DNA sequence: GCAACGTCGTGAAATTTTCCCGGCGTTCGT
DNA sequence: ACGAACGCCGGGAAAATTTCACGACGTTGC
C-alpha cells in the first residue's frame, strides 16, 4: 500500500453517488478504485476476491445492512480497513459502526476534502471521524447519553415497551392493573429520563436503540 | 433551450453526491450545470437569480424540505422544470412531488442512463418517472390501498414530514411561517385523517409506509 | 358565478401532561 | 435494628396541549 497505489472498493446502492466518490477520489494521486458493489453481500464477495486496501461503505444498503457487512468483512479479514460514509449524522450509528470494526465514520454532508482526508488517515492506520460526529459524540458524552434500558427501572421499561406497542394509556393501565394516572405519570417520567420532549422523539429513540423492531 | 445548452441547477445537501450528478451530466452534450444548492432556501434563491432550464432536486434537505422547495419555485415560475432525484423509493413521495409541481421523479438507485433520459424527457416537456416508481404506483393503483400521501393535502403532508423529523410545533410554525396554532390544528387533522389516535401510532404508520427512513 | 376545497387562524372546552406531594415496601450499609 | 435511598403507586392542581366549532380568504372546477 505504501509503495504502489492504494486500491479501493466502493459500496453504495446509488450508482450516481458512486460516481461522485470516484470523481473525488480520482483527483488524488495514489488512490485507485478497483471495484464497486451495490449491496452488502456483493461487497463481501468482492472484498474476498479483490482484496482492496480500503473499503468505502454506505450504511443504508439493501439486504444485509452496512453494519452487518462491516462485521462480516472484518470476520473474514481482521485487518480490513473500512471507512463508513453515510448520510446518518448520528453518533449512535457511528458507535455501532466502529464497534462492528469500521476504522472511520464520515457523513455525506462533509465536504469532499473531509472524505479524502479520512481515506488517507484510515490508510495510514488511524481512526477517522468527521467533525460533526465528533462533536455529537462529545455532546452525548457530556450530557450523559440516556441509553434507554440503562436509566429506566424495570417497571418504566415495561411501560415503554407497551407504549411502543401502540397501546393507549387506559389499555396499559388495565394490563398492569394500575391506575391510568400511574401510567401517565410513568410515561411522563420516561420521557424526562430519556431526555425527549415528545412521543415522536421517543419512538425514534427507541428505534435507534433497537427497542422497536417490527413495524 | 433547444439551440444552446440547457442550464441546470443541482440541489442536494451532500457535496460528494452533487459531484456524482455533475460527472454523469457532463458527459452529455448540451447540458451544463451552472449552479449548486445545499438546501431548499438556497435553491429558491439561485433559481430566481440564475433562471436555469432545469432543476435536479433531492427531497431530504435541511430546513424546508424538497417538496416545499418545489412548491415555492413553481409558485414563482409556473413554467419551472424540476426533476426530483431521491433515495425514496416510495410512490407516496412521488405523488406528492408531482402534485407540488415536479415534472419528474427518479430514484437514486436508478442507473445513470435513467437519470440522463429523465433529464432529456423533462427538458422536452414530458413527465419522467423511473420504472421502479412506475411499478409501485401501478401496484398501489391495483390494490386500491390509500396511503398517507393520498388522503393528505400537500400542506398536511409537509407538516407530517416535519413532525416526523423531530421538530416541535413551534419550530415547524417558524419554518413554515405560520402560527403554531395552525400547525397544531394540522397535526390533529392529520391524525384524524390517518385514523391514528396517538403520535406513537402516527410514527409507526409512517414507518410502514416508508415515509420515515433515517432513524 | 357558485360550490368545493385547501389553508390559516381564533376562541373555548376537553383532555392530557406535568409537577409536587405522600404512602408503602424493599434493599442496603452501618 | 435503623435510617436512607429507591422503586412503585396514585391523588390534586396547575399548565399545556388537543380537539372542536367556526369564519375568512384564495383557488379550482363546473
Automatic annotation (TrEMBL), chains A, B:
The modification 4-aspartylphosphate is found at residue 58. Pfam families: GerE (PF00196), Response_reg (PF00072). Residues 145-210 form the HTH luxR-type domain. It comes from the Bacteria. This is DNA-binding response regulator. It comes from Bradyrhizobium forestalis. Residues 7-123 form the Response regulatory domain. The keyword Nucleotide-binding does not apply. One of its GO terms (molecular function) is DNA binding. The keyword Cytoplasm does not apply. GO terms for biological process: phosphorelay signal transduction system; regulation of DNA-templated transcription. InterPro entries: CheY-like_superfamily, NreC/VraR/RcsB-like_REC, Sig_transdc_resp-reg_C-effctor, Sig_transdc_resp-reg_receiver, Tscrpt_reg_LuxR_C, WalR-like. Keywords: DNA-binding, Phosphoprotein. Gene3D superfamilies: 3.40.50.2300.
Amino acid at each position: 500500500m505504501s509503495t504502489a497505489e492504494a486500491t479501493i472498493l466502493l459500496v453504495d446502492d446509488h450508482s450516481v453517488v458512486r460516481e461522485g466518490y470516484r470523481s473525488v477520489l480520482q483527483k488524488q494521486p495514489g488512490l485507485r478504485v478497483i471495484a464497486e458493489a451495490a449491496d452488502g453481500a456483493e461487497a463481501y464477495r468482492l472484498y474476498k476476491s479483490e482484496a482492496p486496501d480500503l473499503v468505502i461503505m454506505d450504511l443504508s444498503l439493501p439486504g444485509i445492512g452496512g453494519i452487518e457487512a462491516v462485521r462480516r468483512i472484518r470476520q473474514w479479514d481482521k485487518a480490513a480497513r473500512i471507512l463508513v460514509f453515510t448520510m446518518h449524522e448520528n453518533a449512535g450509528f457511528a458507535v455501532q459502526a466502529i464497534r462492528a470494526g469500521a476504522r472511520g465514520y464520515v457523513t455525506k454532508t462533509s465536504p469532499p476534502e473531509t472524505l479524502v482526508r479520512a481515506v488517507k488517515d484510515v490508510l495510514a492506520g488511524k481512526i477517522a471521524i468527521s467533525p460533526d460526529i465528533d462533536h455529537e459524540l462529545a455532546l452525548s458524552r457530556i450530557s450523559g447519553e440516556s441509553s434507554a434500558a440503562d436509566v429506566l427501572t424495570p417497571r418504566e421499561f415495561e411501560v415503554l415497551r407497551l407504549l411502543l406497542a401502540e397501546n393507549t394509556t387506559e389499555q396499559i393501565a388495565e394490563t398492569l392493573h394500575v391506575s391510568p394516572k400511574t401510567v401517565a405519570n410513568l410515561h411522563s417520567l420516561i420521557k424526562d429520563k430519556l431526555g425527549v420532549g415528545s412521543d415522536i422523539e421517543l419512538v425514534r429513540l427507541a428505534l435507534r436503540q433497537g427497542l422497536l423492531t417490527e413495524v
